[in-house]
Amino acid sequence: MSTGVIIALIVIVAAVIAVAAVLTMRRRGPQHGGSLKRRFGPEYERTVARHDGDTKAAERELTERVERHGSLRTRTLEPAERDRFEARWAAAQERFVDSPREAVAEADRLLSEVAGARGFPEGGQYEEQVSALSVHHAHHVDGYRRVHDGAQAHPDTDGAAGTERLREAMVEARALFEDLVGHGRDGHRSADKDGDSRTPARGNDQSWALNRRQAKES
């Protein structure tokens, strides 16, 4: 076989490999994005919106979160720990009737503490803690953001509307709290396709509905 033929074969093989690599990358691109979208759900949409619709930038950020926190190993709460956290949450929920803002501040502290107890970054690293939670509890992590913002904000001047926003934040945050104190092997409750907890909290849902009607303006 002549040198010219050998060179031609090498060029052909290299070209075939290059084309195959390009096609593979094209196939992986949408699947990668689709995988992130399925994994993060509403957190994916929130991140895209925060990047002004730039999906590539959003996916880079979410991929980096997975790389940083995806292998995090959490610990299951001891029954006594779980009971203490659940009792404190129930008390905060009841407190909402008279002191909505103080109840939200307690919910913020509780989420920070229970996440730290499970093995997530400590609450003093709020942004890092939320980032890690978004990888493992993407469907509910925004509730934590809402109670944290409510706890940090100055008292609202719009009365009932402000109180209602705090109530909604508490309701949304409770889903994350239930995930974190869950009774499953990995500390997660079973969830439906929308990521909603199927297991009710220990707190009385009827009393929470009463809180909604009777909570005083803060």
UniProtKB/TrEMBL annotation:
Residues 180-199 have a biased composition (Basic and acidic residues). Residues 180-218 are annotated as: Disordered. The chain crosses the membrane at residues 6-25. Keywords: Membrane, Transmembrane, Transmembrane helix. It comes from the Bacteria. This is Secreted protein. It comes from Streptomyces ziwulingensis.
